[in-house]
Amino acid sequence: MKVVCFGKNLTTICYMASLDKIALVTGAASGIGWAIACLLHDEGLHVVICDNSKDNLDLANIKINEENYQNMSSFHADVSLEADVVKLFNHIKKTFGRLDYLVNNAGIDSFCDPETFSISKYNHVMAVNVTSVFLAIREAIPLMRNSKEASIVNIGSIHGQLTTAGRSDYVTSKAALVGATQSLSLDLASEKIRINMVSPGAIDTPMLLRGWKRKAPNIDLNEVRNRANLIHPCGRIGQPEDIANAVFFLLSEKASFINGVNLNVDGGIHSKVFLSTIWDKQ
Question: How far apart are CA 178 and CA 85, in angstroms?
């Protein structure tokens, strides 16, 4: 058994590089990514989390130590930058020699006014939400060839299919992932690598709350949450664990005949013909 230790920021992480299955989750220091990483860890995988936020990664490292997650480790990387992605996968190759599961969760929210459209902001949204997926998959393919159960899940958004005004750059990035996942499923089939997509609806995360605050700064967030609960057929908004469970299923051999699929995990909101917004009184 090989003991590997490395330091990142203020925390030193030590872990045993001996587990049978290796997973990488991007954007995993908080929110949905963290929930996915914890579930995979609890299911017996060694999980590498990466994140661009050093502050969030430091907090995640504290949790890793407090919860004694010996089979979870962290790596600081901005997956929208090619050099960072290459370093990340070189680390995985050197440490483990292969990769079994990849979850492309890293992403940023955005609001867009067509009249004040910024090409630099648009390029950044696309780099984080779309380009990072292509970079990660390119680097993952050689490592996944050594796996018998190679599987990838991209995290999209219900906004890739139906949306509200003022989200055109974000919507474009998430809609692009739908097509990319379908096409990549054909490209990677010959490599025995499955790739699918999960599109969350409203999930109770810090990113969602920031978006709500920006959209309606004068409305109490508890009131907004209550309104959001009402418009969902399931009667509530989602929790990060709802997405984690869907991702785990698609990664697993239980989904071995599922490929190129976009799974909506949104409490049924995509089925509604008329969608009144959470900013309007019910």
Answer: 22
Label residue 122 exposed, middle or buried (CB < 10 Å: 0-12, 13-18, 19+): middle
Pairing of strands 22-26, 101-104: parallel
Q: Tell me the per-residue pLDDT of 193-210, one tens digit each, with 9 for 90 and over.
A: 999 999 998 888 666 666
Taking the domains of the chain in order of start, what are their residue ranges?
Answer: 20-271
Token code pair at residue 101: 């599961």
Q: What is the pTM of this model?
A: 0.85
Q: How far is CA 69 from CA 12, 37, 55, 241, in A?
A: 13, 11, 19, 18
Residues 6+ apart with CB under 8 A from 208: 202, 237
Longest dimension (CA), the chain: 59
- Residues 50-70 have pLDDT tens digits of 999 999 999 999 999 999 999
Contact assessment for residue 23 and residue 248, using Cβ atoms and an 8 Å cutoff:
no
* Residue in the structure block whose two tokens are 């590498």: 48
State both tokens at 195. 């790739």
101 is catalytic: no
How far does the chain reach from its first CA to its final CA, in angstroms?
59
Catalytic residue among 15, 69, 101, 170: 170
Q: Which CATH class is domain 20-271?
A: alpha beta
